[in-house]
Amino acid sequence: MKTQFPDDFLWGGALAANQVEGAWREDGKGLSTSDMLPEGIFGQVVERRPGDFSIKDIAIDFYHRYPNDISLFREMGFTCLRVSVAWTRIFPQGDEREPNEAGLAWYDKLFDELARHGIQPLVTLSHYEMPWGLVQNYGGWGNRKLIAFFERYARTVFTRYRSKVKLWLTFNEINMSLHAPLTGVGLQGDCTKGDIYQAIHHQLVASGLAVKACHELIPDARIGNMLLGGLIYPLTCKPEDVFAALQENRRWQFFGDVQCRGHYPGYIKRDFREQGIELQTEPADFDALRHTVDFISFSYYMSGCATADVSQAEKLRGNILDMVPNPHLESSEWGWQIDPIGLRTLLNTLWDRYQKPLFIVENGLGAQDKPDADGQINDDYRIRYINDHLVQVWEAINDGVEVMGYTYWGPIDLISASKAEVAKRYGFIYVDLNQDGSGTLKRSRKKSFYWYRDVINSRGATLKR
Ligand code: BG6
Question: Whose CA is nearest to atom 5 of ligand 1?
């Protein structure tokens, strides 16, 4: 068997605007949901006042330091960088008729810099943020008007960057709205499951319209969806547990089913019926849903279990999903259970279900990196984590799964999404920054930097199998 990955496999890293850019009020940027959650997705909404401080306001200052960071990515051999556009840089309130030219110009510079280094951008339209104006004035995605606002935003950026960006994603981890409705669909306060699915319906329609617009405006581009790949195993082989796992998996597969097949699956209709959920829809919505994605992208950090036995369901909070812990797996410092084989299972599952190309756009290990006496960070734990996951990607490719690429999450230390922590570091590149904002923001290479460079240069031949 060949040990190398295919020639056209894309290698790189993944970032999100609100976790790296900083410059939160520069060049006319509006307030986003992320700005209003200074302690992360699972924190409280905080009224932002002049002079107050959130670590996300500066983040790692990618807004000003991107040329240097991109040259470091190039040094590792990246052929692809996943970034997101901050919607609020383009439409600060979300409902303007005309876009903010300064925001558009900044992403032009970013994409030009990537092109100079031969790095292909993979761009997420909405990564865990939306204009706060749309939450305050319209009630977020609960309001059907959001579809048109999002379509205008998507068409604006497709038109502007049509010659620069050929790979697009619609909504980051679209299934996470079920777990964090404010970040996912801009719903505040108490909301019912029906409210959330109504907002999700609007977002799925908007996603379909974005796919349509992308195909019209950039015929040689490809556009994918983005799922949080929450792979669930049955806790035991009891038929009840096996069925519970099937149902849990459908909670995220539902999004893939709609975005890849173009219609609502029977199991969700039953669920809606039994729970008295009646979605408000219009006939045109179903035409929009028929514009299915070209490829499927997903994040994968961990797997979990499901059981029908509620008393056993001692829950472990992993990022966003509550999952029953797997007694056979070890965990990261943040309690995320590490399961490289699960990535092969997930790739095969998605391929068998949809037969669309797959792109792993997030996978990574958050850890507290401690410099040694010489100031070096020997992050062997991170190397082991990535090595073991990439070996499973290679296995899946040999199983016949079509995999477009791998963008490691957090190639440079950034602000974590769930709790806005600096201490949870993912990077190959260390950033001198503390939670209170102190630090020089200087970048330095960790041991994993050189290791990943060698993996990319050898197209995976240096992986330990
Ligand atoms: C994914 C998100 O859920 O997980 C990223 O798309 C996020 O934005 C990543 O950063 C890791 O989560 P955390 O909370 O460790 O940053």
Answer: 417
Ligand 1 atom showing the smallest separation from residue 172 Cα: 6
Look at strands 316-318 and 10-14 and give their pairing: unpaired
C-alpha 149: how far from chain center: 21
List residues bridging with 362 in a β-sheet.
Answer: 299
SS3 of 111, please? helix
Q: Which two tokens stand for residue 426?
A: 């993912």
Atom of ligand 1 at shortest distance to CA of 228?
A: 3
Q: Is 279 helix (H, G, I), strand (E, B) or coil?
A: coil
Confidence of residue 320 (pLDDT cuts 50, 70, 90): low
Checking DSSP bridges between strand 232-234 and strand 167-171, what pairing results, if any? Answer: unpaired
Instruction: Please report, rounded to a whole number, the percentage of residues in the chain having pLDDT higher than 70.
Output: 98
pLDDT score of 315: 61
Catalytically annotated residues: 362
- pLDDT value of residue 50: 85
Nearest CA to ligand 1 atom 16: 416
Nearest Cα neighbor of 346 from 410, 278, 297 is 297
Q: Which one-letter amino acid corresponds to residue 369?
A: D
Given CA atoms 84, 354, 251, 265 in this order, what sign does their dihedral have? positive
Higher pLDDT, 335 or 122: 122
Q: Give the contacts of 157 (CB within 8 A, at least 6 positions apart).
A: 85, 90, 104, 107, 123, 125
Contact 119, 73 (CB under 8 A): yes
Residue located via tokens 């620069």: 164
Secondary structure element (H or E) that encloses residue 233, with its range: strand 232-234
